[in-house]
From TrEMBL:
<dbReference type="InterPro" id="IPR036388">
    <property type="entry name" value="WH-like_DNA-bd_sf"/>
</dbReference>
<dbReference type="Pfam" id="PF17906">
    <property type="entry name" value="HTH_48"/>
</dbReference>
<dbReference type="GO" id="GO:0003697">
    <property type="term" value="F:single-stranded DNA binding"/>
</dbReference>
<dbReference type="GO" id="GO:0006303">
    <property type="term" value="P:double-strand break repair via nonhomologous end joining"/>
</dbReference>
<dbReference type="GO" id="GO:0044547">
    <property type="term" value="F:DNA topoisomerase binding"/>
</dbReference>
<dbReference type="GO" id="GO:0000793">
    <property type="term" value="C:condensed chromosome"/>
</dbReference>
<dbReference type="GO" id="GO:0046975">
    <property type="term" value="F:histone H3K36 methyltransferase activity"/>
</dbReference>
<dbReference type="InterPro" id="IPR041426">
    <property type="entry name" value="Mos1_HTH"/>
</dbReference>
<protein>
    <submittedName>
        <fullName>MOS1T transposase</fullName>
    </submittedName>
</protein>
<dbReference type="InterPro" id="IPR052709">
    <property type="entry name" value="Transposase-MT_Hybrid"/>
</dbReference>
<dbReference type="GO" id="GO:0003690">
    <property type="term" value="F:double-stranded DNA binding"/>
</dbReference>
<dbReference type="GO" id="GO:0035861">
    <property type="term" value="C:site of double-strand break"/>
</dbReference>
<dbReference type="GO" id="GO:0005634">
    <property type="term" value="C:nucleus"/>
</dbReference>
<dbReference type="GO" id="GO:0044774">
    <property type="term" value="P:mitotic DNA integrity checkpoint signaling"/>
</dbReference>
<feature type="domain" description="Mos1 transposase HTH">
    <location>
        <begin position="8"/>
        <end position="57"/>
    </location>
</feature>
<dbReference type="GO" id="GO:0000729">
    <property type="term" value="P:DNA double-strand break processing"/>
</dbReference>
<dbReference type="GO" id="GO:0031297">
    <property type="term" value="P:replication fork processing"/>
</dbReference>
């Protein structure tokens, strides 16, 4: 059994190959599922990529996405926690000039949880034990 786990750009390259071979998106999806199982792209994703290829868009990397830019960088939040890991969401939000929910989401994204009044990584490292 192979331990190879394909990334999405690799799978998109395979889709492009099947597109050039004149296979349908559904057929390409079936082959990906047979080959990669749970690591295969979804049927909808395969269809979306075939649509892009038909429009002569062969760029396999993700395009820049629109959306609101980050109001603060993760490093800023990490520095604040290094200075005082017992700060509350409210205190962190005031310092960073953002809502508590924004701080909470970012902490979750960083894998941080609050234990005994201190923010710590969800997965403790040996130095944290």
């Amino acid at each position: 059994m192979s331990i190879f786990v394909p990334n999405k750009v690799y799978l998109r390259g395979i889709l492009l190959h099947y597109f050039i071979q004149k296979k349908s998106a559904a057929e390409a999806h079936r082959i990906l599922v047979q080959t990669y199982g749970d690591n295969a792209l979804s049927d909808t994703t395969c269809r979306d990529w075939f649509r892009r290829f038909k429009n002569n868009d062969f760029q396999l990397e993700d395009k820049e996405r629109s959306g609101a830019p980050k109001k603060f960088q993760d490093k800023e939040l990490e520095q604040l926690l290094d200075e005082d890991p017992s700060q509350t969401l409210s205190e962190l939000g005031k310092t960073l000039q953002v809502d508590e929910s924004t701080v909470s989401k970012r902490l979750k994204g960083l894998g941080m949880i609050q234990k005994q009044g201190h923010w710590v990584p969800y997965e403790l490292k040996p130095r944290d034990v």
